[in-house]
Amino acid sequence: MSNSFGRLLRVTTFGESHGPAIGCVIDGCPPGIAIAPEDFERDLGRRASGRTRHTSQRHEDDRVEILGGVFEGRTTGTPVALLVRNTDARSKDYARIAEQFRPGHADYTYWHKYGHRDPRGGGRSSARETTMRVAAAVIARKWLAEHHGVTVRGHLSQIGEVVPDGHDWDAVEGNPFFWPHAAQVPALESYMDALRKSGDSVGARVTVVADGVPPGWGEPVYGKLDAELAAAMMSINAVKGVEIGAGFASVAQKGSEHRDAMSRQGFASNHAGGILGGISSGQQVVVSVAFKPTSSLRLPVMGLDVDGNEVEIVTTGRHDPCVGIRATPICEAMLALVLMDQALRHRAQCGDVGEVSPRVPGESKHSP
Amino acid sequence: MSNSFGRLLRVTTFGESHGPAIGCVIDGCPPGIAIAPEDFERDLGRRASGRTRHTSQRHEDDRVEILGGVFEGRTTGTPVALLVRNTDARSKDYARIAEQFRPGHADYTYWHKYGHRDPRGGGRSSARETTMRVAAAVIARKWLAEHHGVTVRGHLSQIGEVVPDGHDWDAVEGNPFFWPHAAQVPALESYMDALRKSGDSVGARVTVVADGVPPGWGEPVYGKLDAELAAAMMSINAVKGVEIGAGFASVAQKGSEHRDAMSRQGFASNHAGGILGGISSGQQVVVSVAFKPTSSLRLPVMGLDVDGNEVEIVTTGRHDPCVGIRATPICEAMLALVLMDQALRHRAQCGDVGEVSPRVPGESKHSP
Amino acid sequence: MSNSFGRLLRVTTFGESHGPAIGCVIDGCPPGIAIAPEDFERDLGRRASGRTRHTSQRHEDDRVEILGGVFEGRTTGTPVALLVRNTDARSKDYARIAEQFRPGHADYTYWHKYGHRDPRGGGRSSARETTMRVAAAVIARKWLAEHHGVTVRGHLSQIGEVVPDGHDWDAVEGNPFFWPHAAQVPALESYMDALRKSGDSVGARVTVVADGVPPGWGEPVYGKLDAELAAAMMSINAVKGVEIGAGFASVAQKGSEHRDAMSRQGFASNHAGGILGGISSGQQVVVSVAFKPTSSLRLPVMGLDVDGNEVEIVTTGRHDPCVGIRATPICEAMLALVLMDQALRHRAQCGDVGEVSPRVPGESKHSP
Amino acid sequence: MSNSFGRLLRVTTFGESHGPAIGCVIDGCPPGIAIAPEDFERDLGRRASGRTRHTSQRHEDDRVEILGGVFEGRTTGTPVALLVRNTDARSKDYARIAEQFRPGHADYTYWHKYGHRDPRGGGRSSARETTMRVAAAVIARKWLAEHHGVTVRGHLSQIGEVVPDGHDWDAVEGNPFFWPHAAQVPALESYMDALRKSGDSVGARVTVVADGVPPGWGEPVYGKLDAELAAAMMSINAVKGVEIGAGFASVAQKGSEHRDAMSRQGFASNHAGGILGGISSGQQVVVSVAFKPTSSLRLPVMGLDVDGNEVEIVTTGRHDPCVGIRATPICEAMLALVLMDQALRHRAQCGDVGEVSPRVPGESKHSP
């Protein structure tokens, strides 16, 4: 079950980076959702590699074939199956990589776990798998918007030491970094060019938010909305940390500062990130995610081979100098999938609970 | 299923803060583990409230009754059921709290989700529930130690703005803060006394580590060891962030710095926190957790009542000025439970895979 | 997870026949259901042993303590925990039974699986566990009746070679056999007296039906309503077969006979047992269950001891000459639990699907 | 999750009868199993339609494409994905069938559940889906044989009123009915020809057995081996009943007859069907399954259309007069998948339990 995700809206992905195809099965999808192959284009395009000089130069079509679960343009309630053929998977020469463990990669751990691994392009551990997360989330985003008015969006909130000087949602889609401040983009371009030239890589931080989530989504104790968001984000390749709302900053906060006072006008702040006791409060749900710098560098590093010998490892080929750059649509996808799953679970258990009390206006003016 | 945790070693907890009892059922436990009521005393004592003046003055016996799954002192493979009666649950007067939503608490979200809630002491959303996590983990720790030589421990790594000036594991259990540097303890005592006097609270950061984890535990993609650790930690009350290894610091790192070079002597560093591609590498598994400051303060704050009226809320009663102080054993418990669950899953799928390659020595000299 | 049952309404049971207590945790229960300790009395009484001379003479109070999940008499949405203390568990002398494997019992298989077992009264493999199924189903029955007008009932449909000569629901609760034909009861009493005197036992067949199930409950392929009913019934102690509707009789039927023609007046017959393609059709759901004769007899049989020696085994003590007699409430319980779980799942996925077509009247005049 | 099956070896199937393809994802598969596209040919051929004049004349290639999880001919531990394109799906004219509900089919129930359905060839409710069960089980059978010496086989044990006059495993694969008595085959051919000519259909009973299962597989209470077999079999299209061992015949048995005495030479009989207390005993595991007669007949029947009008329904096209004929490989597949899943679960929990006692020889001479 380690390749499945979600409890009621359950996504199972399959396929390797350099195998014939990748795909997914989306089980538990409500019937009647309009879906067509072209619906996947926008988000797969935003995630795709090869879009700019700042990302890997692998060029994949990412054309989605719908294999089941859709009839006459609408979901039927049976599993939606999606397939994407790999077309630019060059793996002529993987003999050496098959014998060596690259530091910072899954090579060594897969080998010790399974005793047999597909070394071509990282096999199953490649970020190529995230294509199917984004594809599955296209359906979730559609359902969330149509049935609940919930929207999901995100932006880069740090690259290396650089943080945004301002916040403008309109800027985000206008630059290859999903950066929320247009004036900084030229400087970022130079920064990335220099980095690429140096042969090194850098980490990044992504922030994703959901607007319009009603109070009541999420489940106590072990099915908490924040717990499942943490798992969802941490399951993305290269992620090393997850925060909800104020996150680690809350360690240095006082309680009188952190708790978000409530009035008839709404919440006075959103340090909670829209989640209290594991359940959505009606405020913006805010999640931040730390991506490590990729370890695939042409700068040499000491590693080992399968026989335990020390070897100097140099990674050539097509790699992102900052994997976080393309991660925004992936984090959005995971947020959307978790929310839809929780929405269905909430309807299952609490479908009889009506409006019990006036709601605090959740729309906060607070940017994440 | 939101009150169950783990896939093969499955812990289900139940009970409310001021109900008659709390308890848990541990399903999937291997047979033959020696277990007695007194085995729970040490860790429940470490977690217990009322231990020092710095924590809540609720005094619970936390005496564990074994209701099933153990015969002649050893587990039988059938579910281990544990019960702890609540003895110091004072809830004479909850009429007012039943009508009001405390900011920063689950009151408002439970109410909108369920339309009916147990307001006494936070009901199910109280940290009292974590007693059973610690109890269940006593069995996991025993099994991990006996069958794999794996040990789990932890310490506080930040309170408010204060960080340790040094690191000494031997100091941790000798002070009420699980603080790893004895010389700082008097200053911390003063800090906490002043905080308590002020009526305010503060956040904390806990770091837990597992030693001796072999390479190969964990599962790719959605069952990743780090993803499940993130969910486990985020499911603890008051947690707002989780990091593996370098965590958010990796955002500002270069790839040449972050990746942990490998040699025959071992890994040169442990920025990965012992996990690569979702699978343990044989290094120390290192997890850090951010706890927010408690919102239950005697300092007044604006809140709402169930009719939507604004009310000034003052929380009296027994509360921790820093909930993170008692959180170390809870984080350790979640780490142990996740590890044992993954160990069983690994044995299920890969029980036929023998030693395939020389292992890099995992024992790093690096403190977390 | 082998001690949990259901996907959204999830029941976990624990405890052994001669341990201190048995209990259950019901997770996923909708909030707002009125529940009190006395609500469990009727069904636990129907299931209880010691009620007549035809069943085991163990006398248990079966007094239910609610440990959590209920506040001011109504469920809160958090896990409902129920506890029943064992009060009549005599197990002074189990030394011999601990060393021997009784044919037809779980002794041998538990021993080879776990290497350590609780031999007192069958331990976890005792039908005592079914007490908690019946208890949990009290809540399910209440919810099904109140929210959907669904009722569940059952009767014995065969003992040994004896089948009912007529069918009258009103007769069922008026005799200790749940037999649907009052005139046969005296003969059955004599039959059972003779059987008990002979020291032997006999099998039985139970039929349970649900009225009022709307079309649409159940899920295709692997979550079929009939598949889950089959598992639920087969999980009851001593069950060797399960049928839906015509069951094994359909093997000898022609298609023109088996298929249930539909008209505006309803279905012409109910060979399907109310389920088509794994989904309820709106007809009565009809399930029949085969119980084997108990193997615990005072008539000697050849068995083995733990060292592999042949031993003659004679079982004295309190045993039912026909375990199926008390099974009707247990089968009803499993039917109710499966239906409620499927109802919640249906609401989760298809809560947006309204009335799409006129419904065929489901009320068939056909007795099961 | 209703399209997934198994707990640790988890099979998810997708696709519709007349959609572009059907497929499956097998998660949790141990690494190192040798697998090639041609390994699927034998069992898919045994299941295939169009093999004889007694089965549907749809001719599918059933060529399996491996999309992931296999590298250099061996499984890697990542999900094995299999795809079969539909090539003989004629659905030019489904307008009428889209508007009508065929009695005895899932048309009516899918419509009321989902409000939108794929009517072409039954869509997802078609037995075409079982192709992927058989494909997935090819891997399970291989693993069971290689790692545990467990083999799975089956035969038809009744067609209509006809039962075998003798039992010879060698006869089974030599005739199109999987019939265990060669001398009866000509008569069966005539019987089926007459049935086909009459336009009617008939039910069947299939018996499958597993040899070599060690004692200890299965889990108590809700994860019982027999409970999971019951669900697995009942999830197959057209199944109405499941029996373990003596099944419904045990209702009329005495306890002294049913219980299988044990000696050093083995069990005296196998009424239990190889399962005691939900756990394998080391005897042959024996399961019988009732298949109803297909409802798709050219003989007219009264049905309804989507507007609630009564319509006379005549089904032309390609249909099996006895769907049970092709069901033997499907039942075998489900038996193999359940066994492998339980074997992995047993290893997970009880991998430390060694040989605790002498085993009774399990090889019984009893034919099912």
From TrEMBL, chains A, B, C, D:
Required co-factors: FMNH2
Binding annotation for NADP(+): 47, 53
UniProt keyword annotation of Lipoprotein present: no
Pathway info: Metabolic intermediate biosynthesis; chorismate biosynthesis; chorismate from D-erythrose 4-phosphate and phosphoenolpyruvate: step 7/7
EC top class named in words: lyase
Keywords from the named record: Amino-acid biosynthesis, Aromatic amino acid biosynthesis, FAD, Flavoprotein, FMN, Lyase, NADP
Amino-acid positions noted as binding FMN in the UniProt annotation, renumbered to this chain: 124-126, 237-238, 277, 292-296, 318
InterPro entries noted in UniProt: Chorismate_synth, Chorismate_synth_AroC_sf, Chorismate_synthase_CS
Record field: catalytic activity: 5-O-(1-carboxyvinyl)-3-phosphoshikimate = chorismate + phosphate
Keyword Cell inner membrane belongs to the record: no
Cofactor binding description: Reduced FMN (FMNH(2)).
Source organism superkingdom: Bacteria
Location of the region described as Disordered in the Swiss-Prot/TrEMBL record: 40-61
EC number in record: 4.2.3.5
Subunit structure, as described in the record: Homotetramer.
Record function comment: This reaction introduces a second double bond into the aromatic ring system.
NCBIfam families registered for this protein in UniProt: aroC (TIGR00033), PRK05382.1 (NF003793)
Family under the similarity heading: Belongs to the chorismate synthase family.
Name recorded for this polypeptide: Chorismate synthase
Gene behind this protein: aroC
